[in-house]
Amino acid sequence: MAKKLAEYEAKRDFKQTPEPGAKVPRKETKASRFVVQEHHARSLHWDFRLERYGVLVSWAVPKGVPADPKKNHLAVHVEDHPVSYIDFAGEIPAGEYGGGQVSIWDRGTYETEKWSDREVMVVLHGKRLQGRYVLFRTNGKNWMIHRMDPPLDPERKPMPERIEPMMAKLATAIPKPESPWGFEFKWDGIRALAYVEGGRVRLMSRSGEDVTPRYPEIHAMGRALGSSEVILDGEVVALDEKGRPSFEEIQQRMGLTSESEVRRKMKLVPVTYMIFDLLWRDGHSLLTYPYAERRRLLAELKLSGASWQTPPWEKGGGQAMLEASAKSGLEGVMAKKLDSRYEPGRRSGAWLKVKNRNRQELVIGGWLEGEGKRRGYPGALLVGYYDKDKKFVYAGKVGTGFSDAMLEKLAALMKPLEQAKSPFDVGSPPKASRFVEPKLVAEFEFVEWTRSGQLRTPSFKGLRADKPASKVVREGG
Ligand code: MN
Question: I want to staple 135 with a disulfide (CB 3.0 to 4.6 A). Which of 115, 120, 372, 471 is the partner?
Answer without folding.
Answer: 120
